[in-house]
Amino acid sequence: MKYLLPLILILFTGLGFAQEAVVRGFVYDKSNGEPLAYEKIRLLNASDSSLYQGAVTDLNGFFSIPKVKTGKYILRIENYNFKTISEDFEVKDGAKIEDFKFLMEKDEAIKQIDEMVVSAESKQKKIEVNMSQIKLDKKGIERIPSVGAENDIIGAFSVTPGVVTTGDQGGQLYVRGGTPIQNKILLDGMTIYSPFHSIGFFSIFETELIKSADIYTGGFDSKFGGRISSIMDITYRDGNRQKFSGKVSGSPFLAKAVLEGPLGKGKNGDLAKASYLLSGKHSLLDYTSKALYPSINDGNGMPFNFTDLYGKLTFNSDGGSKVSFFGFSNRDSVNYPEADIDWNAAGGGMNFILVPGNSPVFIKGHVNGSYYQTTFNEVQSAPRYSSIGGFDLGFDFTYFLKNNGEFKYGINLGSFSTNFETVNDSYQTIKLEIPSTEIGLYSNYRWVKNRWVVQPNFRVQVYATYSTISFEPRFGAKYNANENIRLKISGGRYSQNFTSASSDKDIVNIFNGLLTAPENVQSKFITQYGNERAIKNGLQYSWHAIV
To answer: Is residue 355 domain-shared with residue 489, that is, in the same domain?
Structure first.
């Protein structure tokens, strides 16, 4: 731990290496202030428009074009849904950073047709490996068949290639042979330990709030650690910075409401500096099922009940930097005559984006914590209990290179503790409470040249509790043969310090206990090939290779 602060300071030293001019900025939707992702940016030479450089905005609406020579240029953004933006400017001798901020206005004269919308997706496919990755947004999720007219991200996950689910839309997820506990689910960088409600049709996520959902079913890069099977990385949007808006809806299954709006007013037609976003949903099955299904449960209806709450405050600066504070609460219960089961989850944190005025490095950071517990009270049996809670602190740095290349590096410090209590067949109480601390460091380099994209990356995962360091090399590459054919390869080494007290052979686990990997493990075991192998600890490891 005493080496952590100097290590962070070393990472920050990368801020002082800007040697050439950088053209960068943010692109927003003027109607609501939402950052526009995957917009294609073109930097044209004013004297010869055939000479240009390009970039694509990220989820934060940020773009960066490095190594721009002195001269006159035109910065252009074209999208069929918005009015074209064209900005003339000059890069002068000695200039280091040229910052821009664009508010794109909807073009009412153009009728939006999905088949004619020109986006930067084709550009992204050329410059990123994207192995075993599916990108979804709110519109994509709404196209997937739903239950009770309620679209849900878990429904999208369940139809992803390589994913097998139990239940109609969820309940348990098995990705490429991995177990459910080996899937990592993130909400704005915060770990979600259980994404499902008691009835498998719905997750805890609100579709109205989803800005993007990236699903990695294998071969994911070094940014992600702590799981060996898959990653679901969900990002919620910010609140509307232009005007108040809301939505209230209901169905036989649930009722929900979303409210959002600016805090204050923007000056001179600009967007407000701050916004809020609130959502809540509550199940109605325990009420409506009495009328819809009178024969179930002696006329008492279906015994499911859940409530989800979420809130977010976002503060923006003129330079594009911003900070967001968010929190959530999920309560879930099932009340059978023979047993009561309760799930409770809560969490919150802060995310920030920092755009230093004198450096080309783009900085993201977060600090958050989340908690999950489940209780199983069965008639004539002792209660069973399981909980997990922890925090995560992380910094990510991105340095943009020429030809859409980039170099990323970062550090994560996390700690969590599991508390598990159950009773065995001999009526003996078993209690386990195990804390764990982890430190992760990663680097990720992307090189783009002609038809090739090569992405070597590396992660070091330090398991302080076990005095173990896991070195995890990873690699990805792509060859763009033409517009329709691309050849890709990806893989690497992965580890995790997390397991389940349930048997994966069970079709449905009513009570699912969560455990830190055990320290007292057998010293060796015999493999399926008859070889003897030593065991140092209870950590899980995996190798991925995907073509």
So the answer is: yes
Q: What are phi and psi of 285, to 5 degrees?
A: -60, -35
Q: How many domains does the chain have?
A: 2
| Statement to judge: residues 215 and 358 lie in one domain | yes
Tokens of 129: 């490996």
pTM comes to 0.87
Residue 507: count of CB within 10 angstroms of its CB? 8
For residues 306 and 158, membership in a common domain is answered with yes
Q: What residues contact 387, with CB distance under 8 A and at least 6 apart? A: 371, 372, 373, 374, 418, 419, 420, 514
Task: Based on the fold, state whether residues 113 and 152 are members of the same structural domain.
Answer: no
Residue 306 backbone dihedrals phi, psi, to 5 degrees = -150, 155
Q: Which of 126, 147, 178 is the last residue of a domain?
A: 126
363 touches 353 (CB < 8 A) = yes
Q: Which domain holds residue 41?
A: 4-126
Integer CA distances (angstroms), 366 to 190, 346, 348, in order: 9, 17, 11
DSSP labels, 68-103: EPSEEEEEEEEETTEEEEEEEEEE-TT--EEEEEEE
> What pLDDT does 143 receive?
75
Quote the pLDDT of residue 117: 43
Question: Same domain for 119 and 243?
Answer: no
Tokens of 76: 């252009």
CATH of the domain at 376: 2.40.170
Helices and strands: H and E segment counts in the chain: 5, 32
Q: What confidence score (pLDDT) does residue 10 get?
A: 47
What secondary structure does DSSP assign to 197-263, as a single string?
-SSTT-BS--GGGEEEEEEE-S---TT--S-SSEEEEEEEPPPPSSS-EEEEEE-SSEEEEEEEEEE
Residue 441 has what pLDDT? 97
Asked whether residue 166 falls in the same domain as residue 106, the answer is no
| Angstrom distance (rounded) from CA 462 to CA 207 | 35
Residue 211: per-residue pLDDT = 92
β-sheet bridge partners, residue 77: 41, 85
**pLDDT score for 380:** 75
Identity (one letter) of the amino acid at 409? Y
**Amino acid identity, position 374:** T
Cα(174)–Cα(182) distance, rounded to whole angstroms?
9
What pLDDT sits at residue 200? Answer: 65
CA distances from 229 to 28, 163, 177, 188, 421 (A): 35, 11, 8, 20, 27
Low-confidence ranges of the chain (pLDDT < 50): 1, 3-18, 113-118, 168-170
Among the three residues 95, 126, 157, which one is the final residue of a domain in this structure? 126
Burial class (CB in 10 A: 0-12, 13-18, 19+), 78: middle
End-to-end Cα, the chain, rounded Å: 39
Closest CA to 273 of 325, 310, 321, 237: 321
What CATH number corresponds to the domain at position 57? 2.60.40.10
Co-location of 443 and 462 in the same domain: yes
> Domain check: are 437 and 477 in the same one?
yes
- For residue 308, the cross-strand partners are 281, 330
Q: What angle do CA 82, 84, 87 make, to 5 degrees?
A: 135
